[in-house]
């Protein structure tokens, strides 16, 4: 889809890892389609995952009792969040498609990505990850809650136990999916009453 | 239980928060019992939650392809992990009881605590949190996997929507539980076959 903007939020320490390959193949395929692809490489950027009062520049609205949620919301309205958060939020806002690319480590996320979501999207909301029995992150969690339409996840299970050939197959199947990703429909998510609305 | 050592791993930015009160009451009650209580106050310590190659001092065992898990394990054997990790691991090793005290933010953990667990215990394993329908962190996850016997969690739901009186009741019920915590039996956890043993 020529002209579309894609943001890949990528969290892995080793560029030559399986995760690195999945990211590289996504950049290649989407660029081939004429998309503009931006990668937020969180480890390479040394992204700050700690949500602290340093995220708010200028005066706090309730200095006597620090609440990150309250202060971040007020600072967002006044555009007084720290510059690395504003830069990431701008990328998210401009993107037609945002991808999160990270190792599952069974069913976990690395702290640096958790920090990205906490600081850039909304702090600490419903961060349960697609586990063995549910898909809470997607259906009830951060992404849907923050207003994303969510596509089905793409999970490559246990690449460290797969053969080189099988891993290449996993990378190829990701590239294959990306060819038609713009035609995909969002998955059903939790209704508004789930959030008390 | 006089003479017992307790480690409280505490993650909250605001000392005067509800979480701060729960931590303070635990320190008071356990000290009263004659325990030695150590608090790792992760925000106050500015604890580094990013798991990176900086955690390994000296040479890497596989410099051509960085794997955090491999390198951290080798460095642990050689005692060449970075000093803040070694200090935390020592506290864990010496403790008879370890408590994790943090806001759930619905069913999430803050990135800084996630980073503590990743760097100090074992990276990224099975970090699903007691959600609405499961209790994976405890039964299958990081703690049990790392060799802890796990007591039932103590959760105070939605203190921000409770009255001042109700919040005081929550803090009091935590203090009450601590009076007999040394008599508690561990909860049943996943059997060894769950981990492929």
What would you say this structure looks like, in words?
Two copies of one chain form a homodimer. By secondary structure, chain A is mostly helical. Chain A has one domain: Flavodoxin domain (Rossmann fold, 3-Layer(aba) Sandwich). Helix content of chain A is 39%, strand content 9%. Chain A has eight helices and three strands, in the order βαβαααβαααα. In chain A, strands 2-1-3 form a three-stranded parallel β-sheet, with helices on both faces. In chain A, helix 1 runs parallel beside helix 8. Chain A is globular and about 60 Å long. About 5% of the residues of chain A have low confidence. The interface between A and B is large, with 38 and 38 residues. Chains A, B: One of its GO terms (cellular component) is cytosol. Chains A, B: Belongs to the NAD(P)H dehydrogenase (quinone) family. Chains A, B: Keywords: Oxidoreductase. Chains A, B: Pfam families: Flavodoxin_2. Chains A, B: This is Ribosyldihydronicotinamide dehydrogenase [quinone] isoform X2.
Q: How many domains is the backbone of chain A divided into? A: 1
Give me the oligomer status.
homodimer
Largest interface: A-B, 38 and 38 residues
Biggest beta-sheet profile of chain A:
3 strands, parallel
Percent helix of chain A, as a range, is 25-40%
Structural class of chain A: mainly alpha
Q: What is the annotated CATH architecture of chain A? A: 3-Layer(aba) Sandwich
Order of helices and strands of chain A: EHEHHHEHHHH
Tally of strands of chain A: 3
Q: What fraction of the residues of chain A are assigned to beta strands by DSSP?
A: 5-15%
CATH class wording of chain A: Alpha Beta
Average of the residue pLDDT scores of chain A: 87
Uncertain runs of chain A are 126-134
Termini of chain A, distance in Å? 35 Å
Shape summary of chain A: globular
Question: Order of strands side by side in the largest beta sheet of chain A?
Answer: 2-1-3
Radius of gyration of chain A: 18 Å
């Amino acid at each position: 889809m020529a002209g579309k903007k894609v943001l890949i939020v990528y969290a892995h320490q080793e560029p030559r890892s399986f995760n690195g390959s999945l990211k590289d193949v996504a950049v290649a395929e989407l660029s081939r389609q004429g998309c503009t692809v931006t990668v937020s490489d969180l480890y390479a950027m040394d992204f700050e995952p700690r949500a602290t009062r340093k995220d708010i520049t200028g005066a706090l609205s309730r200095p006597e009792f620090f609440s990150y949620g309250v202060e971040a919301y007020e600072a967002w309205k006044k555009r007084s969040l720290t510059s690395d958060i504003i830069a990431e939020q701008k990328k998210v806002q401009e993107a037609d498609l945002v991808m999160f690319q990270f190792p599952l480590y069974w069913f976990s996320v690395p702290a640096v990505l958790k920090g990205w979501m906490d600081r850039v999207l909304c702090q600490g909301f419903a961060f349960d990850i697609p586990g063995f029995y549910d898909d809470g992150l997607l259906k009830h969690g951060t992404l849907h809650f923050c207003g994303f339409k969510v596509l089905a996840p793409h999970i490559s299970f246990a690449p460290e136990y797969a053969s080189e050939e099988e891993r290449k197959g996993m990378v190829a199947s990701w590239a294959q999916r990306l060819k038609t990703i713009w035609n995909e429909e969002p998955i059903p998510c939790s209704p508004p009453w789930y959030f008390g609305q």
